Amino acid sequence: DFSVAAVKPKPRGKQLPATVVARLGVKIEVDFRRTPLQDAVDFIGEEIQVPFEIDGDALKLSGYTKNMPQTIARAGSAKSVLHEIMKKYKGMVIVVDEGKKQITLMTQPVAEKMGLKPFPVAD
Fold it and tell me: Tens of pLDDT along 49-79?
């Protein structure tokens, strides 16, 4: 019967909030064992379906690299997992860009120089 509107299939998988900030509150589980920072951040981004960009030049200015090993096993919000990683590195921050729907990992001095507002990850 083509006179009746087709039933829309229900989306599969987990439903994610519309905003990047809300997605940072999504619960995830990680088990990083000497995982490079780049890979750890990419994994978090995949879990909340938000692309991450790492400002390698900003990290270099503070003596950090994308290859620094991360060893963390925990479950919690994406924000709390990021906090766990970032608290080990003085001045490391994230900047949320709702317009581009992405998160950039950089350092506080570079964010200030660019006029960007770091997003607080501490609970």
Answer: 999 999 999 999 999 999 999 999 999 999 9
Residue 57's contacts (CB-CB under 8 Å, 6 or more residues apart) are: 110
In angstroms, the CA 26 to CA 20 distance is 10
Name the residue type at position 45: G
The conformation of residue 97, written as its DSSP 8-state character, comes to E
Q: Indicate the burial class of 55 (C-beta count within 10 angstroms; 0-12, 13-18, 19 or more).
A: middle
Mean pLDDT, all residues of the chain: 91
pTM: 0.85
What's the CA angle centered on 76, arms 94 and 27, to 5 degrees? Answer: 85
Q: Whose CA is closest to 102, among 45, 17, 63?
A: 45
What six digits make up the tokens of 87? 């608290």
Neighbour tally for 112: CB within 10 Å: 12
